[in-house]
Amino acid sequence: MNSRFGSMVFLLALRAAGGVSAAEDILIDDFERSDYGSWTVERDAFGSEPATGTLPGQQRVAGYLGERLVNSFLGGDASTGTLTSASFVIERSYINFLIGGGGYAGMVE
User: Fold this and answer.
1) Per-residue pLDDT tens digits of the chain, which is 109 residues long
2) Sign of the alpha-carbon torsion through 60, 7, 56, 106
């Protein structure tokens, strides 16, 4: 018996966060606009803009922050693609990501 995993839904807000200091987080990027800005989109998984929630035929998407998110379910499980950021400088000791995923656990024959 095998499991098949469907498209991942990426919820991404990149923040360079300070250690124990009270320094403000540095927002590197988010998807709160009607296009992908400086991100490079390849193939069909992401469309021309961040999603505003659950896409047709998708299980409910919840838990994301803001009004938009990157959602690779556009067109269903068969869609593929990459979304690549522009270069950025990491100015703190670590980065926080908000990433979610879903899947389809069914029989593969």
Assistant:
1) 333 334 444 444 455 555 555 578 889 899 999 999 999 999 999 999 999 999 999 988 988 899 999 999 999 989 999 999 999 998 888 888 888 887 665 544 4
2) negative
Strands, DSSP E only, in the chain? 14-17, 26-29, 40-43, 81-84, 94-96
52-57: list long-range contacts, CB under 8 Å, 24+ apart: none
On whether the CB atoms of residues 10 and 88 are closer than 8 A, the answer is no
One-letter amino acid at 66 equals G
Q: What are the distances in angstroms from CA 21 to CA 18, 73, 92?
A: 6, 39, 11
Residue found under tokens 């950021």: 85
Q: At which residue do the structure tokens 């469309």 appear? A: 47
Q: How far apart are CA 20 and CA 72, in angstroms?
A: 35
Nearest to 97 by CA among 105, 109, 106, 88: 88
CB 69 within 8 A of CB 51: yes
